[in-house]
Amino acid sequence: MESKTKLKLASFDGGGIRGLSQLEVMSHIMHRLSWDHESDGSDERSLPCEHFDLIGGSGTGGLIAILFAKLRMSVEEASEELWNVIEHVYNPGILSGPQRTEALKRCMEGAMKRKGLPIDLRLTTNKPEGCAGFVVASPRIDATSTICLRTYPVRRQPTSSITVVEAVLATCATQPDFAPVTFGSGHRAREYVAVSGAANPIYEVIAEAHLLFGGDASVVSLLSLGTGHPGILRHPQDGDEVAVALHKFMWDTMYHCEQRAQEIEERIGRVGIYSRFSVNQGMQNNHVGQFDDPSWITAQTEVYLGRHESGERLDRLARNCGLVKGPITLDQLKHAGGPNYPGHVVTIVQKSLEILISNQDDDIIAKLKPKDLECESKVETCLEGTRRDILYNIRTWAADLEAPNILWLNGYPGVGKSAIASTIVEELHASNRFGSSFFFQRERASAMTPNALWCNVAYDLARRYPSIRKHIVNALIANESLPTTLNIDALFRELISEPLTKSDDIPIDKLPVIVLDALDECGGIDGWRSDHRKKLMRTLKSWSSLSRRFKLVVTSRWEDDIERLFSTTGHHPVEVISGERIDSVSSADIRTFLLHELRQLLDRYPSLPSGWPGEKETVRLINGANGIFIWIKTVIKLLESGEPQRTLRQILSNGAGSMAELYTWILHASFPKPNIDDAKDFQAVLGAIIFIKEPLDVVSLAHFLSIDGSTIDYICNGLRSVLDCGRILRIRHQSFVDFLLDSTDCPLSFLIDKERESRNLALCCLSTMKRYLRFNICDLESSYVRNQDVPNLTQQVDKCILPYLSYSSCYWASHLAETSSDNEVHDSVTYFMDHLFLFWLEVISLIKQMNIGSNMLHSLIDWLRVNQDDSLATDMQKFVAGFASVISQSTPHIYISALPFAPRCLGVSKQYLNGKRIVSGSWDKTIRVWDAETGQTILGPLQGHRDEVKSVSFSPDGKRIVSGSKDQTIRVWDAVTGQTVLDPLQGHSHWVLSVSFSPDGKRIVSGSWDKTIRVWDAETGQPVLGPLEGHSLWVNSVLFSSDGKQIVSSSCDKTIRVWDA
């Protein structure tokens, strides 16, 4: 055969009736491969032999390989044949070896006939009918050796005359359960039995592929299907020799199969082509006989396939099969994956695989990069000629391998610490010593966590330092959950400390330096009280124990908890002097910076006098700055936003010497004598900017706060000297935030009160969800398609779940936790629990944030325990904990599996299941709604029909009721108010006997005495389909299918019909 570039190989373990597990897995594999291959996702005619180039197997795995490769069977056909074999060969009680062999022979001959093939069909043909296939067996005289019985000819061996049936008998002839199989006659007669040492034929698959396709052929997928662990088997009682033998055989088989699988994983797993499927949990039976229960095996396999990691492995396999060229040749695969590989060969192969493995490592390392998080500097570097003394100090420390491995740069807000950090990063890049950097931002506190910090550092180190990279990759392979672990100490140890410690071959002039800016902003507004900050402090303490070769620069304000950390931790201190202690060097730096900024201002205002503002005013500005660069920067912004000369006179005449005085002057100048509404708007907007957990763009912020966009523009225009007014509003410097929160400095009209604004943000979240959450928010068309398989779901989510709704759904609990209870908050929370919970789950499922749901509800429970009954919230948390995995994969399963299968004792079930209310229609022409628990009427009688009501039904979201009557009309009612929401739906010429909503609530189907079926738009009442004619008598019942694509009807003509909806 000619060499190929994208081979797909498959190996099937032996395992008796547990081959059913392999076929269940193959069913899922074929569905994915067919889905990707066919535009309509159909897998009706999909055959394994059309997707794989070589299939090999042992025992019943060999039987399956023959069914697929030689007999060209589908998975469904092969399953039927294996069930037949189980019924007649494995399950009929005690049979002798010859009897069992004869039974298997009859089953295979029957399979051949059903496929229209002669029962004596030879296994090997010059032009194989399907893909290439083989089974393994052993000569009876040497059961430890292995031969391959092939469907294809090979050059090194003459073609055998063995038949398909004989090959199956040979590979399944385990001793003493089956009789040996004899091939040939006379002196050529040979007896064969099942292989005792190749129940997992993965090595044979690789060797046969090399023999068949040549060493240059490349492989995109190497599939290995096991038959599951036997679980925890109780050892048989002494004296039961048969059971003891079976016990030993099962364990030996499992051990051999899994040992081979592990060997292959270790040798080529990182290349990415190897996929192993074998039920590794769930088969924890406690008796041997349970393995003879096919339904039990199938059920355990279904559970295994339903797990998230199995789904990811299936998806990876499907992606591999779609590659144009394989990442590894059969020469490389044979050497690296062979059972007997000499060390020097592996070294050669490893070198040839370096690029391939590097690519695989890139995929592993990419998981470390924090998603959608910009942690680089947003601050300009130091102006040329400034901060020379400090930069020299830092350079000297970085080059000194005997100096402490942490440098702490500290100083007053606004002295330019971040600019110094940015300059250091730039210099480290130039000298090839840059390891990583992380610039904390207080407004991004929820995303800029210690986990994000150290994952980002590990990501950068792994990309830049190969010797560190390999240790980080190994750590991630050993523990895939590391990037998301809440155990920051373990994350730091396994991704930072240990990889650095093991990397002792980095040249001295290339040793990495890490820069961590604004430590004081970690934890956001909570500061030292934040758990994030406390955890980060512990890891910084751990860093000090590392080798002094690995340097860490930390910048921060002088805060108590940070000072306590460094007072007990070895470090190199560098203080940026300001205030009364300012020295001549710092004053000179301020002058250089001021003159530079003034020159740029003069370029914009060429009419200003030459030399403006003069030496006297320049000195006053330098003295006013007191070494604070942000003071100069803010003054320059003020001069740019107004007439420079007049603005400067106002600033200097008002004595704006300190930052607080300068900020006060800005507020009074921009918002003179604000009224109550102006003050409230200012506080709402600035409070949101300060306390919001993730920044929102201006348009979304206006929607979220229910404030006019012009109001935000007005506030921005007044604060341009301290506020970046781009798409996202950002306060230029943290000192302005401190000022707004300080009741001793900030004027009362502008003072931001944390508790008041947290309450406002919590109410905004709850109000936003009340306005926009709804059933099936993204208009999913089917309840039976996983989120990842929904076409264009990302675009639909972006369209239907706008940023302010997404934010509200993710952070309402965080803001609520910072809020005390009052009537308004209490009512909003109650409404959310009673009406919005399931719709909220839809949103966090669709935006892939299901993992935060349980913790949010824990916060709700804690808040309620202080203020009111928490029982419903507790049940909501149990519901999410129990069904989060299912809901995260398929949003509709909130309604079609999670809610129906939730324990009825849970408050969620009582609150949201349709079983809470009963709707009834009566001969008295009315409709009533009843409490299913108490039997009390809670709505009605609803009056409007002129004759007997024959059928009633709730809409899926429980908000509407549809009714059909003998008056030949259909009516739609509000299930809360009892008012009709549409004019009567008319069209039937006789009684309406049955009505029902579609699963998405958008359509209504009706069946009538007039023998027809009609479909209506539930929003407009307009007919959209029908009349559907076919029944010869009246239609008794109609119902949509669960995916809304079909309608089923039953009639008095004794027939049931299915219609395309």
TrEMBL record:
CDD domains: WD40. GO terms for biological process: glycerolipid metabolic process. InterPro entries: Acyl_Trfase/lysoPLipase, NPHP3-like_N, P-loop_NTPase, PNPLA_dom, WD40/YVTN_repeat-like_dom_sf, WD40_PAC1, WD40_repeat_CS, WD40_repeat_dom_sf. WD repeats lie at residues 914-940, 942-983, 985-1026, 1028-1061. The keyword Zinc does not apply. This is PNPLA domain-containing protein. PROSITE patterns: PNPLA, WD_REPEATS_1, WD_REPEATS_2, WD_REPEATS_REGION. Residues 10-206 form the PNPLA domain. SMART domains: WD40. A motif (GXGXXG) lies at residues 14-19. The keyword Repeat applies. Keywords: Lipid metabolism, Repeat, WD repeat. It holds the Pfam family NPHP3_N. It comes from Serendipita vermifera MAFF 305830.
